[in-house]
Fold this sequence. Notes:
Strand content: 25-35%
Number of strands: 4
Helix content: 25-40%
Structural class: alpha+beta
Low-confidence stretches: none
Radius of gyration: 18 Å
Largest sheet: 4 strands, antiparallel
Strand order of the largest sheet: 2-3-1-4
Number of helices: 3
Order of helices and strands: EHEEHEH
Shape: globular
Amino acid sequence: MYLIHVRIAxxxxxxxxxxxxxxxxxxxxxxxxxxxxxxxxTQPGTVTVGLFVATHSLLSAERAALxxxxxxxxxxxxxxxxxxxxxSGALVGMFFDRxxxxxxxxxxxxxQLPDQASDE
Length: 120
């Protein structure tokens, strides 16, 4: 399963509709293999849609996510004026650490920093 992030540019003063994730799921067919959708609106003017896609390769997962997002943006009236700006696999650190052969659970990314107020 791959996590694909689709970034969508939104019009000024855009308010994401409730259950936006369901609008994307409704556009998916069984061939798209979308298992779950999450929506994040952390930046003004941008919505990030995370699609979990169960396919055999990253490329096919990105293709499926892009097709679903394009259908949603072009057919859903509540997304009028929105456009897809990017679609790519999200990097999952632990997976890449394992692939690169790093030892340790997370390659040290979550290591606690030393207390700057002490000599330790």
